Amino acid sequence: MATMNRFYFGGSDSSGSDLDDDNLPYPKPLTRSSFLTADFDPINFLSSLHNRHQTLEDLRTELRTRSQELNKELLDLVNDNYQDFLSLGSSLEGGEEKVEEVRVGLLGFKREIDGINGKVEERRKEVENRLKERRRVRREVHTGRALLEVDQRLEELEERLALVSDPTNGEYVNGQKDAEFSDSEDDSEDAESGQTVPVTRLQKRVQQYIYLKRLVDRTGPQHPFLMKQEERMMRVRQTLLLDLSSALKQTNGSDDHEKYAILEIVRLYGDMGESSDAIEVLKGWRR
């Protein structure tokens, strides 16, 4: 009966010449590299052996032999490096203390980092507060300058309108009684242009008042200082309206210069938001 080994088929009574003439594809031994691939899979590996002329029992025997060889190599490796294994175990003794030292060091480092972060955060808040304080001071400086400008312009306008304080009772009086205008420079410009009423001077005074009113509104009329100036502002406004009324009553509309003066004075009424007063004055003037 013919027998089968791992790598070839043959009979016990075969002659040497028969073996030399045998051309059967005997399977090559399994290489170690076949099992070292990163994606090694037993099922895929066995499926790749379908062209091997080898029985399953022979393949099992070969794999078992390969396993025994690997076990022997591992045992030899351990025996050859036994002293190194013992040294490794000795070197690992006391490792807990070293790990604890590292842990304590890391905790100390973390506390230092937390301390630095706390100082940085404290510094950030301090800088932020100082920036807020700086912005507040700037706003106050800006407001202070605006208030100073309001006071200066209001005082200048009062002087232009001859509003002076009566030293006997502290009350303001109008120094321009009966609309007698005293600004010679502006009056000379009106005289050169043929005007009989001081239109140029009235234009400048109304423009000064409108700018002053806008400055007050921009600064904030609810400011305590500006609220105290409301009486002065009202007095200036009434004086301007009185001057406009007096100037309008002096016009007669006899020529183009007079007609221009009437239109300009009415426009100044409108700039002050008192167009209705101009209409009332014109109605009384016509009568």
Describe this structure in words.
This protein is mainly alpha-helical. Helix content is 69%, strand content 3%. It is built from eleven helices and four strands; from the N terminus they run E-E-H-H-H-H-H-E-E-H-H-H-H-H-H. The strands form two sheets. The chain has a two-stranded antiparallel ribbon with strand order 1-2. Strand 3 (163-165) and strand 4 (172-174) form a beta hairpin. The model is unreliable at 1-17, 167-172 and 174-182 (pLDDT under 50).
Secondary-structure blueprint:
Blueprint: E1 3-4, E2 9-10, H1 16-21, H2 42-47, H3 56-80, H4 82-91, H5 95-160, E3 163-165, E4 172-174, H6 184-192, H7 199-219, H8 224-228, H9 230-250, H10 256-271, H11 275-286
Helix content: 55-70%
Number of strands: 4
- Biggest sheet, open or closed, and with what strands and sense? 2 strands, antiparallel
* Total of helices: 11
Q: Looking across the biggest beta sheet, what order are the strands in? A: 1-2
Terminus-to-terminus distance: 156 Å
| Rg (C-alpha, Å) | 57 Å
Task: Write the element-wise H/E pattern from the N-terminal end onward.
Answer: EEHHHHHEEHHHHHH
| Cα shape | elongated
Give me the oligomer status. Answer: single chain
How much is the average pLDDT?
Answer: 76
